[in-house]
Write a structure and sequence with these properties.
With 412 residues, this protein is of the alpha/beta class. The protein is globular, with a radius of gyration of 22 Å. Strands 3-4-2-1-5-6-7-8 form an 8-stranded mixed β-sheet, sandwiched between helices. A 6-stranded parallel β-sheet has the order 11-10-9-12-13-14, with helices on both faces. It has 2 domains: 212 residues, Rossmann fold, CATH 3.40.50.2000; 187 residues, 3-Layer(aba) Sandwich (Rossmann fold). β13, α13 and β14 form a beta-alpha-beta unit. The longest helix is centred in the N-terminal third of the chain and has 25 residues. It is built from 16 helices and 14 strands. α4 packs parallel to α6, α8 crosses α11 and α9 crosses α14.
């Protein structure tokens, strides 16, 4: 098949999990024989507007700033965005220019024959809607999260409208977990349209056997974590939905039982709130902050150096970080209350157990999960091994690509 792939972040510009997904899945599509043309936002005019990256054709139309024009005619909801209107401007420009190039340059001029188009989240929904207007190519709407979920039931009316319009006009919807599918149906989306395909991880990249002991030791030494101490690890955006604030609230209960413990936080976001909370709880000497972008290579070393990885999200439709930790044979403590896909990845009981389910909204429950894991290092090690086996069986990018391809092919 020839696939048109619309996603607002793509290497070398990766903001979060969506960019990671896009990078890995497009390479897998190429490896199994598909042709892929990616259209993505051009943050940096120094990047090429068209190039081939590892067999993937990537288009980055140059955008322009019209953010001071939007308030003249946009709805009141967008006016509330304030300085963030620049972000909406960039998204709108990327979508319109990408869809125009897709239709007029690639299809009409260069005679490309696309079999299917996929658009990812509201960020690329405008492209999908334009392509539906201008062609008969099947359009698949990939829903990685929703505005109501990210904003706790509130959020932008414009974004919510775009999500709903794309859902109604798409030929198929693919989402990332069964709990997310239930949430979409609960909000009125057509159940007959929705398929579930879990995300994945590259177990060759995330492989503890490839990590050198001296590199792991260097990470722990860098953070002042002596031999015999516990290193806890959180990786993610520093927002309320990731539960990092509740994790900090849990730390006094953890330190009461296991005082020789440090928590390492990797991420960007509400940095001031994190520092302020740690100081208020008088635990700042047991918290290590890395408020900058950490490369994948260095992130892998952090997983390898840790004893337990904690992801206490309160809204997380899937969550790739837990797969990364599982692939690195680490026990995981994960949020499992509400729309949180971690509970589909992590087995919390029985012979295949690889972690603990907790309520990410309850610091006491988070502390319970961490303490349970720390209480028996040998058991925790077995959980880590179980986690990697589960990744190899269910959560590789090749499996994701093959399952998604079958859904695309059903539309031909």
């Amino acid at each position: 098949m020839r696939i048109g792939f619309f996603v607002y972040e793509y290497p070398p510009q990766i903001v979060g999990g969506l960019g990671t997904y896009a990078e890995y899945i497009t390479h897998e599509y190429v490896d199994i024989g598909h042709d892929v043309s990616v259209f993505t936002l051009n943050y940096n005019s120094g990047l090429k507007t068209r190039e081939i990256l590892k067999g993937v054709e990537v288009h980055r139309p140059l955008i322009a700033d019209a953010s001071n024009i939007w308030p003249f005619f946009v709805v009141d909801d967008l006016k509330k965005w304030g300085t963030n209107i620049k972000f909406f401007n960039d998204i709108f420009m990327y979508n319109v220019l990408s869809a125009t190039k897709f239709i007029n340059a690639l299809i009409k001029k260069e005679k490309y024959k696309f079999d299917v188009v996929c658009v990812h989240d509201w960020l690329s929904s405008i492209s999908g809607l334009i392509i539906k207007n201008e062609s008969k190519i099947p359009v698949v709407f990939h829903v990685h999260s929703t505005e109501w979920g990210r904003a706790g039931g509130q959020g932008s009316e414009v974004v919510s409208h775009l999500e709903w319009a794309m859902a109604q006009n798409s030929n198929r919807i693919i989402t990332v977990s069964y709990v997310m599918q239930e949430d979409l149906v609960k909000h009125g989306w057509s159940p007959s349209k929705i398929n579930v395909v879990w995300n994945g991880v590259d177990p060759d990249t995330y492989d503890p056997k490839t990590v050198k002991k001296e590199d792991v030791d260097a990470i722990r030494e860098k953070y002042g974590i002596p031999n015999g101490w516990n290193m806890l690890l959180f990786v993610g955006r520093l927002t309320w939905v990731k539960g990092v604030g509740n994790l900090l609230q849990a730390m006094p209960l953890v330190l009461k039982e296991y005082p020789n413990t440090k928590l390492v936080i990797l991420g960007k976001g509400d940095e001031h709130g994190i520092i302020e909370t740690a100081e208020r709880l008088n635990i700042k000497d047991k918290i290590v902050y890395r408020f900058d972008f950490v490369s994948e290579k260095e992130r892998i070393l952090h997983y390898a150096a840790s004893d337990v990885c904690i992801f206490p999200s309160t809204y997380e439709p899937f969550g790739i970080v837990s797969l990364e930790a599982m692939a690195m044979e680490k026990p995981v403590v994960v949020g499992a209350r509400g729309v949180v896909g971690f509970k589909e990845q992590v087995i919390s009981r029985g012979t295949d157990q690889n972690g603990v389910h907790i309520n990410g909204e309850d610091p006491a429950d988070i502390a319970w999960g961490i303490n349970l894991t720390l209480s028996d290092p040998e058991k925790a090690k077995n959980w880590g091994a179980n986690g990697r086996r589960r990744v190899l069986e269910y959560f590789t990018w090749r499996k994701v690509a093959e399952q998604t391809s079958k859904i695309y092919e059903s539309l031909l």
